[in-house]
Amino acid sequence: MNTPAFDHNLYAGCAAQIISHTRELAAKGFTPATAGNFSIRMDADHAAITISGKDKGRLTEADIMVVDMANTPVATHHRPSAEAALHTHLYRRYPDVGAVLHTHSPTQTIAGLLYADQGRVRLRDYELFKALRGRTTHETEVDLPVVPNSQDMDELTASVDAALDAANNWGYLIAGHGLYAWGRDISEARRHLDAFEFMLGCELELRRLGAR
């Protein structure tokens, strides 16, 4: 079956949002070299996503492509990142997810390595829990899953699927790699990403001080 055609005006609007956020995140040092990938669900059948191998601080509309939910390029000669499969996996798994952001900050990368053996980063008592959709109090714990890295996307997707069966808190870490965060739209996904970045930074500092 052919994938239905997409709305080009909708695509242009999604591309503009992706470009705006990626430039800000690149300026923060979250996308070294050409790292990271970012997407927005356009409709039930399509997602706009950054193409492979581009400096995320210098993107133009031509650097945003469209894939279907099987991760197949639509109406383009561009190649998606292999990790685009992790974006479409989330869109298929969670119908309410509207945007996925993947970054590689030093904090995220180090935390993924340090907590890889535990399979999670247990976050406790943070006021910033309230930045996560559905959380209303600091008096709780949130487990941010950590999955092992792999160049085999089927294997990596299976690891993510298993981790999310245990806990879905709007994000996960890939060990030594970075963070995936998502939300109903790109603004919510960005809020979740920023909240996880802050709390992971606090966890690393607490660990350095011997308090974790």
Automatic annotation (TrEMBL):
Annotated InterPro entries: Aldolase_class_II_sugar_metab, Aldolase_II/adducin_N, Aldolase_II/adducin_N_sf, MethylthioRu-1-P_deHdtase_MtnB
Biological or metabolic pathway of the protein: Amino-acid biosynthesis; L-methionine biosynthesis via salvage pathway; L-methionine from S-methyl-5-thio-alpha-D-ribose 1-phosphate: step 2/6
Domain Class II aldolase/adducin N-terminal as annotated: residue spans: 16-204
GO terms under cellular component: cytosol
An example molecular function term from Gene Ontology annotations: methylthioribulose 1-phosphate dehydratase activity
Domain of life: Bacteria
Cofactor, how bound (note): Binds 1 zinc ion per subunit.
Residues where Zn(2+) binds: H102, H104
GO biological process, one term: L-methionine salvage from methylthioadenosine
Catalytic activity, as annotated: 5-(methylsulfanyl)-D-ribulose 1-phosphate = 5-methylsulfanyl-2,3-dioxopentyl phosphate + H2O
Reported cofactor(s): Zn(2+)
Record keywords, A-Z: Amino-acid biosynthesis, Lyase, Metal-binding, Methionine biosynthesis, Zinc
EC number(s) from the headed UniProt entry: 4.2.1.109
Family to which this protein belongs: Belongs to the aldolase class II family. MtnB subfamily.
NCBIfam families in the record: PRK09220.1, salvage_mtnB
Function: Catalyzes the dehydration of methylthioribulose-1-phosphate (MTRu-1-P) into 2,3-diketo-5-methylthiopentyl-1-phosphate (DK-MTP-1-P).
Protein known as: Methylthioribulose-1-phosphate dehydratase
Organism from which the protein derives: Thermomonas brevis
Encoding gene, per UniProt annotation: mtnB
